[in-house]
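Q: Give me the 3D complex with phenylalanine.
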Amino acid sequence: MSRACLRSVAFVLVAAIVAASAVGCAKKSGNDIKVGAYLSLSGPDSTFGTDTRAGIELALSEVNATGGIQGKKVRVLYEDDKSTTQEASQKVRQLIDRDKVVAVLGEVASSRSLAGGLVANTKRVPLITPSSTAVEVTQGRDWVFRVCFTDDQQGRVAARFVKNDLKKTKVGIFFAAQDTYSSGLAKSFRDEFKKLGGEIVVDKGYQKGETNFTTYLNELKANHPEIVFVPNYYNEMVQIARQAKQVGLPGSTFVGGDGWDSANLLEGAGAELEGAYFTNHYAPDVPWENSKKFVGEFRAKYKNMPSSLAAQGYDAAGLLFDAMRRAPVLTPEAIRKAIAETKDFAGATGTLTMDANRNAEKSIVLVKIQNKKFTFATQVSAN
Ligand code: PHE
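A: Here is the predicted complex, encoded as structure tokens.
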């Protein structure tokens, strides 16, 4: 036999073994209920994905430990969208068409929930985003839900906090211009701050992907804002905070949004951001009973403190499983209806009720960065 021929025989053999074991697996898990999750498990926002997955896994082990749902074990199939919107759409399509999942969990970044949500909505499979806050994510999409507040609410709360609690009247805004989340949150803050009679002394958008912010930061400083609102993601904030220190803007100048939530922010620029505040869904030391229980269980399983993303992932999955338990049959349609009817679900990030627009009603937490830690400052109503 020629070498090429041998190679193709070997290839056919391997393919046959792979195919046989795939059939074996399918048989074994044929009775499981499949739920899909698409997340940024790699790429620039990777901690968003990996933290969320840790929360989902905890909720999953709890539901399966108590007998699963309607006598069946739940299985979560994870897909990595590599922090890109193109992969996000494609992964949701695969989960629905190829894997036949009954519901989808994800994403964290609003831009990717918009992309994946469009697919799920068109294919009529319910999708729950744990932490995407941009207003548009659920708008006009009957199959897309979230277990968090919106940026309308978050921006309003941040503006009121700066004006009424920190008592600052001259502020700057610095945001990622083409990003749905960042520009939407900046707008909401801007509108509310002006309404409250405050003054925006400098308002700048940077291009996503920029790494040198010194020119912008010097310009911000030259306008003497008392506070600069920077609603972006942690990876860019690390660079901004380090460079801000060099131009002489201290950490306590900055206020941000939930996109700052990452252990990487503290590792990369915890010292530079000493005294900064940001709005969030939760903090590890929130004084809520359900959160304490969650933190205890999470620490027992993973030996570290859960981030807000982990808590949100846990709640998105927990709320979905609760809806699946209430659904008369496990079809996407019946599950969608049960999710929409959710009332007073006791989550790690608060008590959740789905409103008519598929957004969760819950309170917003203000977190302060102190001694390289996220600490609970206060809690306010979202409205
Ligand atoms: N709210 C952010 C968005 O919509 C995502 C995020 C949530 C990031 C919570 C960190 C923590 O894009």
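A quick observation: The longest helix spans residues 3-28.
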